[in-house]
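Researcher: Next sequence.
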Amino acid sequence: MKLQLEPDVAFGVHPEFGVVAAISDDHPFLDEVLRKHHFRHNSTLDLYVLADGTPHNAAVRTVARASREFQDVGLSVAADPRIVLPPPIPTPEGVPARQALPGQSLTALTGELHELRRSADVADVLEQVLDEHHGVIGDLEEFIDTAATWCDRLDTANGRELGQHLRTIAHHGAFLGDQLVTAQLDLAVMPDVTPEGAPALADVPLLPRYELPSVTHTARARAALAYSPNRRATQSTSPDEAAHSPAAPSSPRRTR
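Model: Next structure:
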């Protein structure tokens, strides 16, 4: 497709330098904004490039932020859709690389729910979350497992302990997936449809979720209620009885 008008800024993908930017004229504002978002001009290519090793997600966010800033002042921006395609996930030698497919974000899927009326349609959206190949639940489990393996590479006791903790979290994620599959199957067979006069989903307040206290707060609560040899116990007896009662033995444990 040939553009009728040349954009002020264009973002694309270079086979060697990754995400790059080009400008239509040598305007100081264009150069200033691109440099602000970590692009540097390559005089040989006459293109703006990001630093070597910039993570893919960081590059996509950089393009989005720079594009928004250009558009806010009325400049036109063009971007190659291939920018959002993630690179293949590294695999051991001899194992075919797994191509990461761009899936819809949870934000997009949540927004889709606001337009649906049939239970079966909600089940279809939930099925995208549970998709075996590029659903968010499977991707989350793989991400956590990979993070656990990264911790193992530290080759320290703390690293191994954290890796094991992450794998436990991955098991919880798998359990969550099983529960969502059950809900998805139930929705798929429900013939229910929201009535025409039902309020918009955005107008219905979400029920508050029960929040478990954090480990830190729980530990503090237990410590506050536990016996301390340095703290005077609450007197439930009379002063005369307290005077004749034996003193509590000191704790044999040392504290740091």
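Model: The first helix runs from residue 28 to 36. Confidence is low (pLDDT under 50) at residues 226-256.
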